[in-house]
Amino acid sequence: MKSAYELAMERLAQSEPSTAPLSDEQKNRLADIDKVYAGKIAEREIFLKQSLAAAQAEQNYEEIEKVQRQLATERTRLEEEREAEKDRVRRS
User: Fold this and answer.
1) Which residues of 17-28 are buried (b: 16+ CB within 10 A; e: fewer)?
2) Contact between 26 and 85 (Cβ < 8 Å)
3) CA distances from 61 to 45, 46, 57, 58 (A)
4) How far apart are CA 91 and CA 22, in angstroms?
5) How far are the Cα atoms of 11, 12, 28, 68, 87 from residue 16, in angstroms, in the given order?
6) Coiled coil where (predicted)?
7) What is the pLDDT of residues 20-39, one digit of tens each?
8) pTM
9) Integer Cα distance of 55 and 67 in angstroms
10) CA separation for the pair 61, 43 (Å, rounded)
């Protein structure tokens, strides 16, 4: 007789697609996606950190907070986009 844990793991395995090994082409595509998104993240950080420095120089605390929130939001959005694209490659 199987435990509840074993039954749950079997159901999970059935609902999840099997994780087949990645081909070399998929691995290369995943590496390219990481490079592209690392560049996008760096670009946004540079731009927003310049805005942050300008707001700090003016001691505009509302603008500082706004830019910090935007920086966190942009980073999270780009990381989510990267992971979604990588998932598409993994499924193909």
Assistant:
1) eeeeeeeeebee
2) no
3) 19, 20, 10, 9
4) 10
5) 9, 6, 24, 38, 13
6) 54-88
7) 788 999 999 999 999 999 99
8) 0.73
9) 9
10) 24
Residue 86, judged by CB atoms within 10 A of its CB (0-12, 13-18, 19+), counts as middle
Q: At what angle do helices 61-91 and 24-57 cross, to 10 degrees?
A: 180
Judged against a pLDDT cut of 90, whether residue 16 lies above it is answered with no
Q: Is the dihedral of CA 69, 75, 78, 80 positive or negative?
A: negative
Question: Domains of the chain: which residue ranges?
Answer: 23-91
- Are the CB atoms for 70 and 48 separated by under 8 Å? yes
